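sorry for the late reply, my laptop died twice this morning and i had to redo everyting from scratch. anyway the thing you sent over, i finally got around to it. pasting the sequence first so we're on the same page, its 124 residues, then the predicted structure underneath. double check i copied it right bc i was rushing
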Amino acid sequence: QVQLVESGGGSAQAGGSLRLSCAASGSTPSDYWIGWFRQSVGGDREAVATIDARGNIRNTPSLKDRFTISRDNQKNTVNLQMNNLTPEDTAMYYCAAAPRSKWLPFRDDEYDYWGQGTQVTVSS
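ok and here's the structure:
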């Protein structure tokens, strides 16, 4: 099993930045893709970005110019740098783990383990 703990959420003004972190522990984290998803109130959960231990990345095209995913395999952490935030970025952000056997997983049903989430609120 993999345990995931998100941190770094909070409030920001439009145009500001936040950096989310996902700490992975338990069964070999390097065997998993670690992805970020978000879900706004009343909205569907959507994928933001995912990365494997080799640095393969898949981004949501509409966000890739503002959001950057990175991974530190030594620390078993995956970060999501979010710049130029807008109120539409307000959501609960989750990190999740999918097995390495997947390729560029972007559906939430491809992910086996989930963190509790961290709230991001952007005001105008």
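The chain has no helices and eleven strands.
thats about all i looked at so far, will dig more tmrw
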